[in-house]
Amino acid sequence: MSSRDHILEVIRKNQPKGLPLQEIAFSDGEPFDKISKFTTVLESIGGTVIPINEWGEVEAYLNQRFSTEKRWVNLVPELRNLAPLADFTEDPHLLENVMVAILPGHFGVAENGAVWITEELMGDRALPFICEHLALIIRAENIFPTLHDAYTHIDKSQYGFGTYIAGPSKTADIEQSLVLGAHGPKSLMLFLITET
Amino acid sequence: MDTETTILDRKTSSDHATLADKFNLDEPRVDWHDKTLWFIRKKRDKAASQLQEWEQLRAVASDIKNNVLANLHTYLLAFERNAQQNGITVHWASDAAEHNKIVHKIIEKTGIKQVVKSKSMLTEECHLNAYLKTQGIEVIDTDLGERIVQLAGEPPSHIVLPCIHWKKEEIGELFSHHLGTPEGNSDPQFLTAAARIHLRQHFMSSRLAITGVNFAVAETGEIVVCTNEGNADLGVQLADVHIACVGIEKIIPLRKHLGVFLRLLARSATGQPITTYSSHFQKPRKGQEMHIVLVDNGRSKRLGSADFRNALKCIRCGACMNTCPVYRRSGGHSYHYAIAGPIGAILAPGLDMKKHADLPFASTLCGSCSNVCPVKIDIHDQLYKWRQLLAQNRKVGITKRVGANTMAYILSHHTLYTFAGTAGRWLMKYVPFIISNRFNPWYKQREMPKPPEHSFARWYHQNRNFK
Where are the domains of chain A? Predict the structure, then answer.
């Protein structure tokens, strides 16, 4: 008997009788302001939230902070003037010198400051992790209160690869001292479109 | 009963009490360790208290996990089918040795000699690194804490915080030796930056990445890996081959259940609302090869035990360790098993009862572990049940066995009990050195209490008529 069949056989024999799955229903609790909650939580975990009314503000913000001499990679069509839309046919290792990556996210989650992004928005799966600084853009109306709402929205969609990103990469492995920029981006800027 | 397997009280070099003694030689360090972990426990409390539905979340998570245990056969088959449809190769391993061989075979086919690995307690449990080393393959652990203990030649001492027992000055020294950082620099920011540069080279050059798995979703065939550092993703996204190693108990039925578990995991572990990255791998990248190794290693057998199967609900958050008064003061290495603390103490004896017979006794049975567990494992009850089972199988030391039997005899014989009480009070009063000496383990590091003048029974007899 193969290991697979043997394992499955033992499990079938040993598994207890159990209850059927219950529907998950959480009371919405006290209503809260999703945008301010999202902002507070994301800033508390090291991210920066920049509310914007028009695309030009993204350009102004980034131009002020990062040298245009360095490599920028943009995947937001509305920001074509800031940096040309990237096209990815290359080896992901060649993204190592990316200073700033600008990516659209699907939505944010108020309770934990996370942004959901899937691979078609990343260009390359490696990009959000290998760049030095990451800028994500979402619309304020696309913020869900909790992860339950987020999964209701994601539902059964197929994505190959998807991830929640909540702030810059970080570690506290050395004596619990928080350090931003462990292996991935050293900073996370979240542009929140409130109008436009 | 096989007396050969009886562990006498003769201190072996590896039992919990002996190793804890060693850890306790440096008292200020124990205090520091204790406080650091308590600080994390408090962060967990703060995060939990911010969700008014916290207890409901725990209950739902526990229900889902119970459902998983009752339907594991169906869910594993569904997971396998869906993962295969997603283009992933699924392997099954009965035990640690088979797991290691499967992983090695995949690596061998590529000819790769150096691989990166993100944190995976399962590969620690299986001693994968050591096995691959004998096959000429070097594993670079990429989680900062894990890399630190790896450079030091140690196993992790905590499942979430692998080097929680290391001081920054020691890490500075270690890095100076291995990574060439300037001597005497122990600034965490600086050391982390040095590790970033060091590990980035490995991410860039390694064509094969191994990861653990936090959750495997039966419904979709996807796996979820959570990190703060982004090391799992950097490894996988830059590699040609991804091997994910997962214990069969990590299956959850539906994608939407991730909502429940991801809300609980990081809050329970470190008090964060969520880890920085919660990556959902559903299909390999175009041109990438992806393997999932499903590992049993004693889990299917445990499933048949009504008393101990609940431990399979564990999501490896480490909350039970941070809260445990024994773990905090004895350190993770005193448990001499890949998973330390209360959860390790109930998992380890299931794998090897003789080798880990000491661990269920490394507890005060205070129950704090069960109270913080996000999936409501009855950890302290299981510790107690293990003790009974170990005693039945004569796996406890002679002093403990004779002591407990004598106690039981005295407690069940009235006259003897009364006499023993009188004798005990007299001895403690007039010849205290009979009790207060180094042969009495209860005297160690504490004073014995003052003996009362007379027994409670006598006091009650004298006083019950007075109002």
Answer: 32-193
Q: With an 8 Å Cβ cutoff, are B276 and A161 in contact?
A: no
Q: From start to end of B120-254, where are the E strands?
A: 138-141, 208-211, 215-217, 222-227, 241-247, 251-252
CB A112 to CB B67 under 8 A? no
ipTM above 0.95, yes or no: yes
Beta bridge partners of B246: B294
Using the Cβ of B419 and the Cβ atoms of chain A, whether some distance falls under 8 Å is answered with: no
Q: Do B256 and A173 touch (CB under 8 A)?
A: no
Q: Which residue of A has its CA nearest to B162?
A: A173
φ, ψ of residue B354 to 5 degrees: the values are: -70, -45
Task: Enumerate domains of chain B plus CATH numbers.
Answer: 3-44+318-398 (no CATH), 51-166+207-300 (3.40.50.10420), 413-463 (no CATH)
C-alpha to C-alpha distances, A33 to A112, A191, B391, nearest whole angstrom: 14, 18, 57
Rounded CA gap, A157 and A115, in Å? Answer: 17
Length, in residues, of chain B: 467
Query: Residue range B395-410: average pLDDT?
Result: 86
Cβ <8 Å between B285 and A161: yes
Q: Which chain B residue has the Cα nearest residue A167?
A: B276
CATH classification of A32-193, choosing from 3.40.50.10420, 3.30.2160.10, 3.60.21.10, 3.40.640.10?
3.40.50.10420
**Residue B307: closest C-alpha in chain A:** A16
- At residue B436, φ and ψ (nearest 5 deg) are -85, 75
Between positions 103 and 162 of A, the ones with CB within 8 A of B are 109, 111-114, 119, 124-126, 128-130, 146-148, 150-152, 154, 156, 158-162
Contact residues on chain A for B72, CB-CB shorter than 8 A: 11, 15
Helix and strand counts by DSSP (H, E) for chain B? 21, 10
| Token representation of residue A82 | 């800031």
Compare all CA atoms of chain B with the CA of A127 and give the residue at the minimum distance.
B237
DSSP state of B92: E
Q: What's the pLDDT at B451?
A: 86
Taking only residues 57 to 76 of chain B, the set having a beta carbon closer than 8 angstroms to any beta carbon of chain A reads 57, 60, 63-64, 66-67, 69-73, 76
Q: Are the C-beta atoms of B318 and B133 separated by less than 8 Å?
A: no
DSSP annotation string for B398-450: HHHHHHHHHHHHHHT-HHHHHHHHHHHHHHHHH-GGGTSSTT-GGGTTSPPPP
pLDDT per residue as tens digits for the range B357-401: 999 999 999 999 999 999 999 999 999 999 999 998 888 888 888
pLDDT score of B45: 98
Residue B343 burial (CB count, 10 A): 25
Classify residue B269 by burial, with Cβ atoms within 10 Å: 0-12, 13-18, 19+.
buried
List chain A residues with CB under 8 Å of B285.
119, 125, 160-161
Chain B neighbours among A 48-87 (CB < 8 Å)? none
Residue B1, pLDDT > 80, answer no
Which of A19-33, A82-96, B316-330 is the least confident region? A19-33
Residue B311: which pLDDT band, with cuts at 50, 70 and 90?
very high
CB pairs under 8 A between A and B: 242
pLDDT in tens, B165-184: 999 999 999 999 999 999 99
First to last CA, chain A: 63
